[in-house]
Write a structure and sequence with these properties.
By secondary structure, the protein is α/β, with parallel strands linked by helices. It contains 25 helices and 27 strands. The structure holds beta-D-glucopyranose.
C-alpha cells in the first residue's frame, strides 16, 4: 500500500517519535493507534521460532509456543547448499506469518574465532565467505515471505565471556577480511530488513554507538536500507547511540531513554532530523510487514519437521569411515549412549526452541536393524556410572556392531559462557575405550555444537558428526547410518587435534576488559594450513558412500584485469555405485607476495548431485574481491598484479586440481616517497619503476666491485645477493654508495613524486 511515511512522521509528537525508538516490552515495538501505526512483534531465531506469549526473557528460560527446531547453524553451514538454506528460510518465514511475527532474530553470523566460544553452535563458520553465502540465502528465504530478518551480532562478538562490556581489539585489515564480510555479503546480496548490533565494544567503542560500524560502513559503504536494533540490553548511552545509527533499542527501556531523546532534541544536543530519520527507517520496516501480512499462512509443524530432517541429512558430516558404514540393514546393533534416546539437538539460550516433537535415533532406526539400547553414561555428571557402563559393554559384546552416541551435554556449551577446554565428558571418553575393547565394529555419532578432542579417533571404524541437528536429528542419523541417505556434509570449521593448536589460544578470552585478536587474519584453516599443522579433520572435509572424480579444470582466461570476471569450470563424475552429492570448493592462493596472506582462501563453492556414472561440469565465478586483500593504505580492496593459483579441492587439505591465472591490477597505489623508501618498493611501482631502474642497476654494478675471478671475494658475491641488497636499500643510502649530496637526494625524491 502506498503511504507517505514522511508525512506521517510530521504528524507525530516528539514523545511519540522518541517512543518508536525503543521496544514497548520484551518483544513488541510500540504502536501509534491514532496514526494507524500498528504494533508488531519480533522473535528469536535463528533456527526456529521462539515466540513467547507470556513470561518474556532473552535466555530461553521461559516457555515459548510449541514450534519446530531446525538444525542449528553449526550443522546447516555444513550443507554448503545455498538453495536449501533459502528453503529453510522460507519455511521459517511462513511460520512467522502464521504466528504474526514481523522479524525473525537471525541469522547469527559471527566468525568462529575459537572453538571455545559457547555460542559457536549458533554461528556458521570460521570462514567469512561461506558464512556470508549461507546467511544471504537464509535471509532471502525468510524475507521472500514478507518477514524481516535481523542479522546479528554486529560486530566482533566472538565470545561469551564478558560479552556485554569486553572490547574486541583488532586491526582494520582483520576486521575487514575476517569479521565483517559475512555481514557485508548479506547486506549487499540480501538486504536484511534489520541488523542487530552486538553487546561488546570494538577497539574501545561500544558497537551500539559506533558511527563507523553502524553508519559509515553499514550504510555508506554497503548500502544498508533497513534499521539497526540493539541486542537485548546492548545500549550503553542512548543519545550518542541514536546519533551513531542505532535506531531501535530493545527491549523496552521503561521510558527512561525515550525521555533522554526528548530532552536531547529539546536542548539541541540531538538534531530532530536524526530522530525523524530513525523513525522513518523503523516505520519502513513495520509497514513493509503490515503490507505483506498473510493471514492465510499456516504453520504446518509436521511438514516443517520433515523439512528439518531433510536439512539435517544434508548437514551430517561423515568424518571417518573405513567401509563399515553404511551398516547393513537387519544386523544386531547396540545403540549406546543417552543421546541415542534423548538426543542433544539444540543449544541453550535465546535460540532455545520448544520443540513440538523430537525424533531420536532409536525411533529413526526402528525396522532397519535388530537394535538394543544401553544408556552407557549420564549427562548430569562427568563421573562414570559403573553399572551403566557394564551394561553398555555387555550390549556391545552381544551385537554385530556398536554405535556410540556421544558428545557434549547441555551444561558444556551454551549462550552466556564459553568452554574452557575442548574435551567431551571423561565418562564418555572412557565408555568409548571400553566399548572399543570388546567390539571391533564401533561407530561414533557426535552430538555437539563445536569441535571436541577425539583421543579414541584411531580406534573406531567410523565417526559421524551430526552437530546439533534439530528435532528430527534421530531420523536423519539413522538414514545416514543405514545408507538410506548418502552423507554429503562438509565441515564448515576445522577440527583441531587439541584446543591449544587454535590460533586464538594465547589470547582467548582476554582479561575481561579487552580481548586482543593477535592472530589477525589467520583464523581457522587460514592459520592451520599456512602453518602446515596437522589437524584432526580439515575445513571442508566430509566423506561420502560413493566416490567422485574431478577433471578438466578450465579457466576462461589465462590473464585478466582486476575489473574482469574469471570463469572457472570443472567436471565432476560419480565413479561409485550410489547417487550422491559433492561440494566442490574453490580456493585462491596469492603468489604475488604483495602482502602477508593465508596460503589459501575459499572464494566459491558449488554443490552437485550425481547418479552413478554421471558427470556434470560446473562453473564458478571469481571477481576482483576473490583475489583481493584489504589495503589500509587506500582503505579499499586491492588485488596486486601477478600470479594467483586457482585450487579445486574436496577440502582445504585435499586439493585435486590447480591452475594459474595472471592478474593485472588497475589500481595504482599512491606512494609517498621518503629518504627511507627502498629501491625495491620503487621498482615494484609502475610509476616510479622506469625512473629508478637505470640508477638501480648502475649502483648495483658499482656495489659488486671488480673482484678477481675465482677469488674468495668473487665467491662471496652473487647476483642474487646484489639484487636483494639493492632492493632493500633506502634512497638515503645514495649518499654512502653513490656519492649523492643531501640536495641531490632531495631533488631525486621530488622527481619521483
Ligand atoms: C541474544 C540475541 C537474542 C536476544 C533476544 C540476546 O541475549 O544475544 O541473539 O536475539 O537476546 O532474545
Amino acid at each position: 500500500m502506498k503511504r507517505n511515511i514522511k508525512e506521517l512522521i510530521s504528524q507525530m509528537t516528539l514523545e511519540e517519535k522518541a517512543g518508536m525508538c525503543s521496544g514497548k516490552d520484551f518483544w513488541h515495538l510500540k504502536s501509534v493507534r491514532r496514526l494507524g501505526i500498528p504494533e508488531v512483534m519480533v522473535s528469536d531465531g535463528p533456527h526456529g521460532l521462539r515466540k513467547q506469549d507470556q513470561q518474556a526473557d532473552h535466555l530461553g528460560m521461559n516457555e515459548s509456543i510449541k514450534a519446530v527446531c531446525f538444525p542449528a547453524a553449526c550443522a546447516t553451514a555444513c550443507t554448503f547448499d545455498r538453495e536449501l538454506l533459502e528453503k529453510m528460510g522460507k519455511a521459517l518465514g511462513e511460520e512467522c506469518q502464521a504466528e504474526d511475527v514481523s522479524v525473525l532474530l537471525g541469522p547469527a553470523v559471527n566468525i568462529k574465532r575459537s572453538p571455545l566460544c559457547g555460542r559457536n553452535f549458533e554461528y556458521f563458520s570460521e570462514d567469512p565467505y561461506l558464512s556470508g553465502q549461507i546467511a544471504s540465502s537464509f535471509i532471502k528465504g525468510v524475507q521472500s515471505k514478507g518477514i524481516g530478518t535481523s542479522i546479528k551480532h554486529f560486530a566482533c562478538n566472538n565470545q561469551e565471556y564478558r560479552r556485554m562490556s569486553c572490547s574486541s581489539e583488532l586491526d582494520e585489515r582483520t576486521l575487514r577480511e575476517i569479521y565483517l564480510p559475512s555481514f557485508e555479503t548479506a547486506v549487499k546480496e540480501a538486504q536484511p530488513r534489520t541488523v542487530m548490533c552486538s553487546y561488546n565494544q570494538v577497539n574501545g567503542e561500544f558497537a551500539s554507538q559506533s558511527k563507523k560500524l553502524l553508519n559509515d560502513i553499514l550504510r555508506d559503504e554497503w548500502g544498508f536500507k533497513g534499521y539497526v536494533m540493539s541486542d537485548w540490553g546492548a545500549v550503553n548511552e542512548r543519545v550518542p547511540g541514536l546519533a551513531a545509527g542505532l535506531e531501535l533499542e530493545m527491549p523496552a527501556s521503561c521510558g527512561s531513554t525515550d525521555r533522554q531523546i526528548v530532552t536531547a532534541v529539546q536542548n539541541g544536543t540531538l538534531s530532530e532530523q536524526i530522530l525523524d530519520r530513525a523513525v522513518e527507517r523503523i516505520l519502513n520496516v513495520i509497514f513493509d510487514y503490515a503490507d505483506h501480512r498473510d493471514t492465510s499462512a499456516v504453520f504446518d509443524k509436521d511438514a516443517d519437521h520433515e523439512l528439518a530432517a531433510r536439512i539435517e541429512e544434508e548437514s551430517i558430516v561423515l568424518l571417518q569411515n573405513d567401509g563399515i558404514l553404511p551398516l547393513s540393514t537387519g544386523i544386531r546393533a547396540a545403540f549406546i549412549g543417552e543421546f541415542a534416546q534423548k538426543p542433544r539437538f539444540q543449544g541453550g539460550g535465546s535460540s532455545h526452541i520448544n520443540s513440538f516433537k523430537v525424533t531420536n535415533a532409536l525411533e529413526g532406526a526402528s525396522g532397519m536393524a535388530d537394535i538394543t539400547y544401553a544408556q552407557g553414561y549420564r549427562t548430569d555428571t562427568d563421573e562414570p556410572d559403573e553399572a551403566l557402563e557394564a551394561a553398555a559393554v555387555e550390549a556391545a559384546k552381544a551385537a554385530d556392531a556398536a554405535v556410540l552416541f556421544v558428545g557434549l551435554p547441555d551444561s558444556f556449551e551454551s549462550e552466556g559462557y564459553d568452554r574452557t577446554h575442548m574435551q567431551m565428558p571423561s565418562c564418555q571418553n572412557r565408555l568409548v575405550e571400553k566399548v572399543c575393547a570388546v567390539q571391533p565394529n564401533t561407530v561414533i555419532v557426535l552430538h555437539n555444537g563445536s569441535p571436541v578432542e577425539m583421543p579414541w579417533c584411531n580406534r573406531v571404524r567410523a565417526i559421524v558428526e551430526v552437530y546439533l541437528g534439530g528435532q528430527a536429528v534421530g531420523a536423519a542419523t539413522a538414514n545416514v547410518l543405514f545408507g538410506k541417505v548418502n552423507p554429503c556434509g562438509k565441515l564448515a570449521e576445522t577440527i583441531p587435534m587439541k584446543v591449544s593448536d587454535n590460533p586464538s589460544w594465547l589470547n582467548f578470552p582476554g582479561d575481561g576488559k579487552k580481548v586482543e585478536y593477535r592472530e589477525g587474519i589467520f583464523v581457522g584453516y587460514r592459520y592451520y594450513d599456512t602453518k602446515e599443522m596437522p589437524v584432526r579433520f580439515p575445513f571442508g572435509h566430509g566423506l561420502s558412500y560413493t566416490t567422485f572424480e574431478y577433471s578438466d579444470l578450465k579457466l576462461s582466461a589465462g590473464s585478466i584485469k582486476d575489473t574482469d570476471t574469471l570463469e572457472v569450470s570443472v567436471t565432476i563424475t560419480n565413479t561409485g555405485s550410489r547417487a550422491g552429492k559433492e561440494t566442490v570448493q574453490l580456493y585462491v592462493s596469492d603468489l604475488t607476495a604483495s602482502a602477508n596472506r593465508p596460503v589459501k582462501e575459499l572464494k566459491n563453492f558449488a554443490k552437485v548431485s550425481l547418479v552413478p556414472g554421471e558427470s556434470k561440469t560446473i562453473t564458478m565465478l571469481l571477481d576482483k574481491r576473490s583475489f583481493a586483500w584489504y589495503h589500509t593504505g587506500i582503505s579499499d580492496w586491492y588485488a596486486a598484479s601477478g600470479k594467483y593459483e586457482i585450487l579445486i579441492g574436496r577440502s582445504s587439505r585435499d586439493i585435486v586440481l590447480r591452475d594459474t591465472v595472471e592478474l593485472i591490477s588497475t589500481t595504482i597505489l599512491p606512494m609517498a616517497v621518503t629518504p627511507n623508501t627502498t629501491f625495491g618498493e620503487l621498482l615494484e611501482n609502475p610509476v616510479t619503476c622506469a625512473k629508478v631502474s637505470s640508477m638501480a642497476s648502475q649502483i648495483a654494478s658499482g656495489m659488486g666491485g671488480d673482484p678477481q675471478e675465482g677469488s674468495a671475494a668473487a665467491e662471496a658475491i652473487s647476483e642474487e645477493m646484489i639484487e636483494q641488497m639493492m632492493s632493500n636499500m633506502p634512497l638515503r643510502a645514495l649518499r654512502s654508495f653513490a656519492g649523492f649530496t643531501e640536495e641531490q637526494i632531495e631533488a631525486f625524491i621530488s622527481s619521483l613524486q
